[in-house]
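Complex 424.
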Amino acid sequence: MNVLLLGSGGREHALAWKIAQSPLLNRLYIAPGNAGTGSAGTNLDLDILNFEQIRKIVIEKQIDLIVPGPEEPLVKGIYDFFSKDRALGGISVLGPSGQGAMLEGSKDFAKAFMSRHGIPTAKYQSFEKTTVNDGLNFLRSLKPPFVLKADGLAAGKGVVIENSLQAAEACLTDMLLNEKFGQASRKVVIEEFLSGIELSVFVLTDGNDYVLLPEAKDYKRVGEGDTGLNTGGMGAVSPVPFATKLFMEKIKAQIIAPTLDGLRNEKLDYRGFIFFGLINCDGNPKVIEYNVRMGDPETEVVMPRIKSDILPLLLAAAKGELKQARIEIDERPAITVMLVSGGYPEKYAKGKQIAGLDRIQDSLVLHAGTKADSGKIVTNGGRVLAVTSLKNSLEEARAASYNSISKIDFENKYFRKDIGLDVM
Ligand code: AMP
Ligand code: GLY
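Predicted structure with adenosine monophosphate bound:
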């Protein structure tokens, strides 16, 4: 079969690397992809939000399955676009309908969904321009820190946590009255601050049944010891030691099952990944957020731990046939360390030549922001490479990734040196 994977980050390279190993695969296309995905399949220069353009490629390349990596095409309705297209009868899109994708596309929708289905999460209220004064009063009734979330997609920047009431009030006003995050902050969710360690849990579902993928822990802050600015993720580990059998059972019973029941009861068509961003509050899991896609850089440790062929699972999820599916997971731990461009997540340079990739033997180097440029590979984003290692112990995996990193070079290369230390 022929697969079209949408996206261009480390997550997509990890997915492409895994899909490319399937004996069921005929051709794999990645749009737009990066220098790494180009070695797992064929990159296509496509706008992933231009569904008409994608449709032409689907016909031309005889695509059987579309796998959207990021959330945007899903929230914009790529599933609905193709499912309505009778002329393309056989094509499957692995992902939720636009309505289902609201779990990520609207924080207010997600919170109301959780509240309807008794899913543990932080207490909240939502406000709009016309209710800004109620919002300010609500803030004054809370204890710091204050958590404010733009309702819509804001390129991962829509969550603000403020320690002072004054700053929180200013932020709320800015979001609602000055559209600080554009359309995304026309509505704002204010919620209770939860403290605990975060955990990323993933399922692949066909709307009825699901398979549980390996869980992971992401390192979001740019600096060692979880300091500095928030990033897309500086590294990840899997498995996560505090995700014990008991804790995972609670997650299944209190979060995964009611979420799937809720989707079914509300007739939300959902076939694809659900990423539960969870927090461990004194041994009890609570949902921080839903995502309708895999995590990045979590996918870079999740895919290497899946032993089963991924393609039949993706296909079964898209076709509603997951009931009989089984997934085999590698017991061994995986770690990934992100190499980023100095300055990220703020201003950074692009186009820097990357050296040493041919010297790596002990790790899997997954490309994020890279591109091929007249025979060379150059940096093309803030997060550049994810250096993943799968070994018998986390100590060995860590050592392998950091050893590989010492062989890779580009101007202003930066990485965190403490990935995985906290869970060892
Ligand atoms: P997001 O940008 O949606 O991934 O959220 C950013 C981060 O904000 C999350 O990963 C958490 O670390 C933090 N966060 C979001 N909601 C809460 C909350 N209610 N309490 C504490 N931290 C939160
Ligand atoms: N690593 C967090 C995310 O993908 O949203």
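Residues 338 and 386 are 4 Å apart (CA to CA).
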